Amino acid sequence: MFKNYLKIAWRSLIKNKLYSAINIGGLGVGMAVSFMLLLYVYNEFTYDGFHQNKERLYRVMRTQPNNGEIYTNQSMPVPAAPAMKKDFPEIEHVARTDWGGDHLLNYNNKPLKMKLVAADASFLQMFTVDFVKGTRNDVFHDQSSVILSESAVKAIFGDKDPIGQTLKIDGRTSAKVTGVFKDFPSNSSFKFKAVIPWTLYEAENQWVKQSGWGNYSFQTFVMLKPGVDLEKLNTKMRKLIERYDPNNKENKLFLYSFTRGHLYGQFKNGVNSGGAIEYVRLFFFLAIGILLIACINFMNLSTARSERRSREVGIRKVVGARRFAIIQQFLGESILTALFSLVVAVILMAASINYFNEVINKHLVIPFNNAWAWGAAITVTLLTGILAGSYPALFLSSFKPVKVLKGVNKTGKATLHARQVLVVLQFVFATSLILSSILIYKQINYIKDRPVGYVKNGVIEMDLEGNLAKQYQAFRTDIINSGAAVDATATSGSIANSNSSSWGINWPGQLPGEDKIPIDQIVTTFNFISTYKLQLLKGRDYIPGRMADTLSLIMNESAVKLMRLKEPLGQIVKWQGRNCTVVGIVKDFVWGSPYEPVKPAIIGFDPNWANQIGIRLNPNQPVSKSIETIGNIYKKYNAEYPFEYQFVDDSFADKFANEKLLGTLSSSFTVLAIIISCLGLFGLASFSAEQRKKEISIRKVLGASISSLWFNLSKEFLILVTISFLIGSAISWYYMNQWLLHYTYRTGISIWVFLATIAISLLVCMVTVSWQAIKAALSNPVKSLKNE
Amino acid sequence: MEAPMIKISNLEKFYRTEEVETIALNKLSMEVATGEFVAIMGPSGCGKSTLLNILGMLDDPDAGSYIFNDIEVARFNERKRADLRKHNIGFVFQSFNLIDELTVFENVELPLIYTGVAASERVKRVEEVLDKMQIMHRRNHYPQQLSGGQQQRVAIARAVVNKPKLILADEPTGNLDSSNGNDVMELLTDLNEQGTTIIMVTHSEHDARYSHRIIRLLDGQTVMENIMV
Question: Where is the ABC3 transporter permease C-terminal domain (chain A) (predicted)?
């Protein structure tokens, strides 16, 4: 019997090629997209899951009051780790690391920049680092050692054995390669390719050893002994800093699961508030939604064709088939279709995974060799087949043979209603997406158009490293004389990313406790205001050559407001232990989050704090030419280092990376949902046109015009789409409102958004339905009347 | 005396639309003995097809009794009717009603599949009956590749492959030319002579003459019975 079903299924697929193609293709596209989304979801859920001790691994976190809120982060003082190990017997291992930035690794005068981390040797006992050469117990025996990942070895040494070779790090530290480990999977929080022992880092940076409990500059990880009560330990942990630094009661420590960190590790006002899990949920919802509308499509198209299958059902029943046998047959067909769609989906996935990775900025890999993944895919496919086939199967199997064989089986109003509900469901999903996409883009543009307070076009920034740090002034003069740049300044960090703040600042009229307020700080040399073209409201910039300006200070408007200074110029503010005179006030500029109000900020002066150089390119010369000139000059100063730079407007745009991703995804899914929904609508339209053939013919014989017939046939669908719009817009209005509340600076949900959405929906609907309607309206009435 | 294969009494069937009720069968009673060949005649709308559908258990009566082989089936549910039908009754239609996606062989095989006959046995029985109907050479063709007469022979083959006790034929020659029509009537007569009971609805006096008895219906009632000699 099964063979017979398969045969019929196969032959009816072959016979109706267009219909089969739409069905298999539609379902295949839906499956491909939802599988890719599920792949992402799986990838996120297994993030950092490869560490064998994952259940016992924790990150040490710290809370600190800040401007009436509680600020939570993971930067730790250096002495915390040894103190924890000493005070808490529950802890098996503890390890400190730095933040793992890019460093220059030089072997035989071939310098390469790579992510390198400094870590305590215990790090290798806690986390799963898979050694190919060397073992975790002995690689850091010697202080001057470095271990590398396989890809780093390949890049630096090629096929040569790296063990025992010496690398020069950042042009000064020598370290011998003692171990090679397998690269971490892409869904790991650790991105570094090289590790040096903490002892080496301390030896190279003397200040580290001396830094006390008030300097939060590193990360600390903990591995607990089995069976430890986390809550109890956290209660004790809270007071650790205070125990060693009695004046420091504000900073409290606690442990947070290392593997949970990626998805849930965001804190708002001291409370765990989620994290990437929100995106995972969104993706999961989209995956299910897309699959569902693809299924609905399948149902609609299958039932639309029911007239043609009804005779077969009648015959089968006459020769002895029970209803259950018919249900089995149609489910068999839909499962077969779903299996073909799986093939299409796999091909589509293979073709588009790279593009998808690019969009979401991940490295997802289709797990072709994973039996579990195939099992899951086939299970989902079978379920999809059953779901998609259930309604058509129940519907078709209910036909009465007497009626269908006589051709009087008028599929009743009930089925039409069911199918209308399905179409409405699809379009609710589609309109929600249309509306959300428009709002996401509106919000991005709103933020982008917000005045930033400086001119971000035509400025590049690069690291001040190697010789350049010593010969900055000469380099500056050279690039300006070459005509490539018009101005340049050395700063502590990029103007596009706030990355430093300080407390313990004193000002006249300060209230008790206000010295604990952290204030953003950017430390500069001369020419800062002129290079970035900030707006100077009062006073002056630092005067080139005047080193006495180390005792001067520039602030932004918000800082003046915070300090309640009526006449700020000339006031003495204590910053970094120095009594500085306020010499200038600049208009607020967006340094941190573009979605938040500008925070108080100090622009300090300290030539020894420079890490970066900002260069304003010559606007009268092509950018590429200026960059080339600067690159050539850079090589003269820093031959060892690669010439790397970043445009400030690009760095600024990176702040919208999440929103942009959301926008791209949402608009792609909108297009997809519209296409799939239109296929469903097309199905319903053809069904309705076929059903109403006789009515149309009679109307035509009686003199109805083509356009009136077209309207008559299309009206029903326009109503359906309008209903969907009402439901869909209510849903997305609610959710988008919630989403916008995340942002202090946010766009409004204006009426034109709704108008645009309904216009798009109706237009798409009309285009889809009209083809069938016009075809029906143009058909020869004699033919269909004869058939009756 | 042997009990009749079919005994219906006071059978009623109505068709209702929202406002109008049409009587298709009006307290109809009749009997058909095992081995009989009965023709049912009458003008359009007299209730012939309704009667045939009820006899074939494709439809149920609104009132009255229908005893098939000593079993009262008038109140059977669809599942029970389907079970009884597939073992006992074969159908032949005016428009053949073959499944276009299946070959001749597969169409004939279908009833055997639904009655759960083993595959090897199916092949034997299908080949046997195709041979008898002289369409063995067309076994791998699809219905649309056959002439009307050939299609009806396939349909008859399908109706008899399960060795039913009763064959119901609804204007079996209606779509055929006279020569093919005669062939089909000869086939039915042969089957009847081998013991199968046949009830045939027809408009054609010529075809009716092949039967033993003609029942004439008008407005859902028997108006006359002719016994053929």
Answer: 285-398, 668-777
